[in-house]
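User: Please predict structures.

Assistant: First:
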Amino acid sequence: MSAVLRTVNRVVLALIGLVLLVLGGSVLAVGLGASPPSWWIHDSRHDVLVSAADRARWRDHGWFWPVAIAVLAVLVLLLLWWLSAQLRRRRLAEVLVETGDGEGALVRGRAVENVLAAEAETLDGVERAQAVLTGRRGTPQARVDLVLAPHATPSDALHHLTTGPLTHARDSAGLRTLPTTVRLRALKHGAKRVS
């Protein structure tokens, strides 16, 4: 997600939250006995959101209230899904590289991921590699998935990954540490027929 979209997302979330907070707070305040201004949507603590006439109008339609409740339930589930998507860790868009002048330089996160994966694929016994950076741009974290060839030894592949590509990525970016989660999988291959 780009920085502009993240900013727009946060501003929209803040505005929606502010509107909901003001409306909910006003309903609570009026319900507790506060006197609202004359132009407000509630007149007194005995005022209701849905009047008896509005409720009675739909009483003859047996489908209305179940549909209204179902729509609101689906809306709540969608909002909870969206909230969980916002809180999920996303790929790192850029990495802050220490240049020694106190300023630093920004490198695209995808570029670092591609180089890390390409270098990991050159290791003996590694058929495929994929790297993903998460965290903050000054303190990135890596997740590396390796698909190992049938002849590969997992401990050797992990050792070569740690001392090779991960060390190069950490040193190139001027990072003190690069916490990494590595997932190793074996390459699936069919059994050979013996004649």
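Second:
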Amino acid sequence: MRLSQFSPILFFFLLCACLSEKKQAEKLVPLGWQILETPTQASLRGLSPLTSEIVWASGSNGTWLRTIDGGETWDHGVIDGLDSVDFRDIEAFDAATAVAISAGQPAVVYRTEDGGKVWGKIFEGDKRDFFDGMAFYKGRGYIIGDEVEGRWRVLVSRDAGKTWEILETSPKADPGSGSFAASGSGILTYENHVWFANGGVKSTVFHSSDRGVNWEEVPTPIVQGEASQGIFSMTRIDQDLLFAVGGDFLQPDLANNNAIISTQLGKSWALINGNFPSGYRSGVTYFPLQHWLITVGPNGSDFSANTGTDWEKFSDEALHAVFVDRSQSSVWASGPDGKIAKLLY
């Protein structure tokens, strides 16, 4: 047969090949946030998504919330009647069990085992305590608090938050040192490692590789020097990579030196090489499904598809905290005025 008889077929296959190449060349980007209706107007900085269906949150006015149907409905209330207390971090273990900590006074830790119906106080600090964030790894948990008598106030739990004690080997701290209680993510733990961020005039990362027995203070190049500046949030990307964001909460549009990376599990830190997130950022998380870093703040959200080297803004929504769920199938964020959002992609 003559070649001309195959021309339509050849054209069809060539067209399909071109469309396939074009689709592959198109950069995948987040589509924005789905803002969910919640029964509160509280400022929500505590956030703990377990799956795409089960999410816990906490915040101002003693508020706690829980959904078990992906945000269609919410259980909510006030923890132990403490309607003037700001619970800025919450860590959930399942649909029934969660631990919440306050920032400010009283410095308290509460736990529920019945889906939030009853909250029991399991630790209360003294008038000097100010708790900033909390992290767990396989039942072992840490709470970071501001400096007390020349040492960081670090609490440890070895039983999934049922009991807590002051860590006797807490690292030394300069007077007035503190971590930012902006999203509960200024502290990380993984296997035997613990990291927490020192914010403000000097912004460094404290790292222990032996569950808090010994500590090293590691300098960082993030913007610092003022009480409103420094690291606000950290996330772990893989076995070696950590990422941190921050900036200056008094200058929310300042987009300079506000993102740093560690390729040695926090033993050293460097500024990213590309363009920075587009302002002060209080939360960051890694979404393995899309290989994205997502970061949020008062002037919007940015994402990076190249391990934090370059950032692109995709939303103007004001948010405080962002976390991937434990099943790593969805990304959730919380913010002012009772705002909880789910990433669209």
